[in-house]
Structures are given as structure tokens and as C-alpha cells.
Amino acid sequence: MVFQMVLLKLADWILYQLLANSCYRAARKMRSYGFFLKNQSLKSSQQQAPSFPNVFKCGLENRGSDILACDIHGGLLRTESFFPYFMLVAFEGGSILRAFLLLLSCPILWVLDYELKLRAMIFITFCGLRLKDMENVSRAVLPKFYLENLHLKAFEVLASTGSRFAFTSVPRVMVEGFLKEYLLFDNVTGTELHTVGHYFTGLVSDSGLVLKHRALKDYFGDKKPDIGLGSSSLHDHLFISLCKEAYVVSRDDGNSGTSSVMPRDKYPKPLVFHDGRLAFLPTPFATLSMFMWLPIGVFLAFFRLFVGIHLPYKLALCLGIWSGVDVRVKGCSPSRSGHRKGILYVCTHRTLLDPVFLSTSLGQPLTAVTYSLSRMSELIAPIRTVRLTRERKQDGRTMQRLLSEGDLVVCPEGTTCREPYLLRFSSLFAELANEIVPVAMNTRVSMFYGTTASGLKCLDPIFFLMNPRPSYHIQILEKLPRELTCAGGRSSCEVANYIQRKLADTLGFECTTLTRKDKYMMLAGNEGIVQDKRGKSQSIGK
Question: Helices 2-18 and 21-38 sit at what angle, rounded to 10 degrees?
Fold first, then answer.
């Protein structure tokens, strides 16, 4: 018996020496877990963890002068995992190959301890990444997913306090912009990354990974924050124990059934614009599903494009629906008066395919005017497209000429918007036609967005049609009465604002005064205008 015990200890020592410490710890945890499943009495005796009240039990009264300390992961978000946000940086800021490499590393990351896992994810995600690309992702992509994953009660506690301080082990560049702009944090302490020139090296700076409890003590000294929010992990228990009041953030309160999901109307700041291609939170399983779908999605996208370009309207619509495209149409073609001019269809703008789906649904050819269109989109468009110049008089003459030739489609917002908001309508269209038909259009996607502010515009239709079941809802409203047009004595601005409100009510959207310029300043840091080779200003995208 003694000999057997000696052999077991020797084997245990050799295993420790051969394997990395993290792998060994993971194996020990798995072995212990299996052993405790068979010995429930031992399992209960081994459990030890400090108990802190649930965040749902935190009172909100008289907190105006309180100081709050928390981490965004586990403290403010409903999920503790930071993998999806690294994947967003890898995919949107890097490339699909970088994202695939991060996905392949999941089995290895699973057995690494916390510090090694974080260092490995930082290296894969940031090695060779441009600082500019990370800034774009931090400004235009990550806030949407952070807002959608905010814990409602944790946010209410946060909003009731006077001062807010964040301490996190993840790179500061991933969270600081969101925390300061949307949640008004006073200071964010996070892991600093090493850079060379305009690129990240993928290594942590000399200061190393931030240890939250040490960073809190260094920042506050002997003073304790009033409230600490954290997860049920041992790392966070050590962190929040340094606060006067400590609360654990969980998905819901099992006793009252209170939901932790953050409704859109309680967002600290309206989410009108965001960028990036991914329409889902890329957890490991969801990301794996996306990569498995990609070959099928690419084939479907080109099949749907071929059908839409080369086949008659009715056959194209039938085959499109058969391939998974969800097209729902309400209303019918408007009656025509004796005027020679064509009908002006005024549409909300969701993707570049808006005029195409409207033309296919009506079963008649239409001409679409656009402020910008990639050369590829022009080539594959099954309907006639004409570019505008953003010079009011010249664009007015162009649209008058096109209306004299037939029906015309215009999107007066001037750019696309993904969220349930309508941007300010340009009033130019109201001056040109008396036969105006508003068209409410909306889209839904589950995997990829078919619009971008900073990516390749030529791929917008491809990405939209790559979705398993892309959806287009089209509602053709009644023709505008003559007394509500410029011919009836209304100003062009009054007509444009009336149609905007009418379409917003139909879709359940909210009207805004935001413009295309506002969108590009928020998402890309520019006005969406570049100089061409002849020195003329041109739009860079919709």
C-alpha cells in the first residue's frame, strides 16, 4: 500500500513538471469535480466562498454622493465572458483570418488559467493591429454590444451614484470609450498594451495585467469606495471586499423573478448609429456556427444575386422567397393621374437594395437616384441607377428629367440607418413632384449587416444576402393628397417633415434631426466626403 502511494506521488510530480501550470490546474479541477460528483458530502464540505448580497438587494435612495467601483465584465454586463468582445475586435478591426485563429484557440484557452488566457487572447487579437482600427471598433462597434448586454439593476445602482470608477484586467482601449461616453465614468483603470509606431505588438506593457484589488488600493489608498459590484468569481470577491458595501451581479433574482435585461428605452444614451458587419454577439458557439455557415452563405448570396439580376420580376421573387429571403409587402401600386410625370416613391433607407426590392415587389421597372454607389453595385443593379452630386440645383434638374421619363425612387435620408430611427429628410424631392407615394421599408438580419460606414461598400449587398433568412418588409402607403404637397400651398420642408412622421408612425420608429454628416462624424470621424482626382468632393458611402 505504501509503495502504491509513493508511485502515485511520483507520477503526480512528473505530471506537474511536464505540463504547464495552467493545464495542470485545470486537470486537477476536472478530477476534483468528478470526485465530488460521487461524494456529495465531501463536495458540500469543500465549498468555501464569501457570501455577498445580490445586486437586486441594493437600495438606490440617497446615493448621490456615493463612490462606486466595478469592472465592466461581471460587474455591469450580464455575462462574465470577455471572449465575444475580443472576437469583435479581431473580426471588425482585424480580419476574418484573425477571427478564425481566435476561434481555433478556444480549446487551449479553456484549460489556461485566468492570466494566461487573457494574455493569449490579447496577443491573438492585437498583434499587428493598427491603433486606428482599434479606435474605430471602440467608437462604432463595441458600444452597441455593451449596451445590449448591460445589467439593468447594476446600471440603476450605477446611475444613482455620484462618482464612478472602473477597474478591469482587459485592455483599457476596449472599454474606456464606452464607459466614459455612455456611462460617464470618472476614471477607467485597465491593462495597457505595448505599441510600436501605429501598431499593437500584442504584448502587455511593462506594468503587466491589472489586478483589480491592487489597482483599487493603489488608487484610493486607505479610503474605501461606498459600493462595489462584481461577479461571483474569487477574483471579484477579493476586489469588492475592499468596498464598504459589496454586491454580486447575477442574471436575475430567483426570488422575485426580476429581469436583468436592459430595455432600449432605458439606455443612458440613444443608440442611433453603429458600424461593423456582425449582427450577433460572437460567443464561441455562435462564431463557430457563423464559420460553418459561410460557404453556404456565399453560395446563397450569389444565387440570390443572379436570380434578381437576370430573371423576370415574378420568377425572381418566387425563387428569392424559396431560397430563404423573407419578403412581405403591404399595399399596392398607386393609381395614376393624367399627368405625364412619373410617380415619386419616397422610401426609408435601410440598405442599398431598397429600390431593387421595391421594384421587384411592384413588378415594374423603376429608376433610383443615389448620392453614392460603388461601381460593383452599379454593375449588378437590376434597375437603372443615377448618381446625384449634392448640388441642389443640378440634382433638381436631374430628378425633373428622370420623372419626365418614368417613375422614380428616392431615399431622402441620404444614408442608411440600422436602428429604429429616421434621419432628417431632405426637402428637395417635395419641390419636384406632386404625385408622391411614401414607402415604409424595414429589414431584419440575424448574422451580417448589409451596410457599413468604414468597410467596403461594394460588399454590402453580398453581406445582406449571405444571411440565412434576410427579411424585407415593404409597406406602400396611399398617395399624398394634393393639399399636402407643394402644389397645395405647403412648403417643401412641411411636406418632407409630414412624410417623415407618417413613415415613422407606420414603422414604429422615432424621428430625428440627425443627418448623413452626423452619422459619419460619429462612426468614421469624418464628414463622409473625399476629394476625387479632379479636386471635386464626392461621397464615400451611404
Answer: 140
> What is the rounded CA–CA span in Å between residue 244 and residue 228?
8
Calculate what percentage of the chain has a pLDDT beyond 70.
Answer: 85
Residues 200, 315, single domain; the answer is no
264 in any annotated domain: no
The residue behind cell 429608376 is 367
Pairwise CA distance, residues 260 & 140, whole Å: 25
Which DSSP helix (H) or strand (E) runs through 6?
helix 2-18
Report how far residue 470's alpha carbon sits from residue 75's, in angstroms, rounded to the nearest whole number. Answer: 35
C-alpha cell at 230: 462584481
What single string gives the DSSP state of each residue in 233-282?
SHHHHHHHTTSSEEEE--S-BTTTTB--B--GGG-SS-------SB-S--
Dist. CA 413–CA 371, nearest whole Å: 11
Residues 6+ apart with CB under 8 A from 69: 165, 166, 167, 216, 220, 225, 227, 228, 229, 239, 240, 243
| Cα distances (Å, whole numbers) of residue 504 to 294, 491, 516 | 34, 20, 18
Q: What is the reported pLDDT for 526?
A: 62
The number of residues in the chain equals 542
Domain shared by 298 and 245, yes or no: no
Asked if the structure places residue 206 within a domain, the reply is: yes
How far apart, in whole angstroms, are the C-alpha atoms of residue 75 and residue 231? 6
Is residue 118 a part of any domain in this protein?
yes
Q: How many CB atoms lie within 10 A of CB 245?
A: 18
Q: Using an 8 Å Cβ cutoff, are 198 and 131 in contact?
A: yes
Give all strands (DSSP E) within 331-395, no chain letters.
Answer: 344-347, 367-370, 384-387
Tell me which residue of 328, 523, 269 sits closest to 417, measured CA to CA. Answer: 523
Residue 301 domain flag? yes
What digits encode the pLDDT tens for the residues 436-492? 999 999 999 999 999 998 888 889 999 999 999 999 999 999 999 989 999 888 999
Task: List pLDDT tens digits, range 284-335.
Answer: 999 999 999 999 999 999 999 999 988 998 899 999 999 999 999 998 888 8
What is the structure's pLDDT at 374? 66
Q: How many domains does the chain have?
A: 2
